[in-house]
């Protein structure tokens, strides 16, 4: 299951949530309970030589 990054528009809190691709893109901020939107995150990959 992928981990998605979220950012709260009210308090600026950044947090991660594990969810499937089909789950809602809106979740509640763990600090202030405001609805936060999924952020586009940078993909990490390792170069193998």
UniProtKB/TrEMBL annotation:
<dbReference type="InterPro" id="IPR013429">
    <property type="entry name" value="Regulatory_FmdB_Zinc_ribbon"/>
</dbReference>
<feature type="domain" description="Putative regulatory protein FmdB zinc ribbon">
    <location>
        <begin position="1"/>
        <end position="41"/>
    </location>
</feature>
<dbReference type="Pfam" id="PF09723">
    <property type="entry name" value="Zn_ribbon_8"/>
</dbReference>
<protein>
    <recommendedName>
        <fullName>Putative regulatory protein FmdB zinc ribbon domain-containing protein</fullName>
    </recommendedName>
</protein>
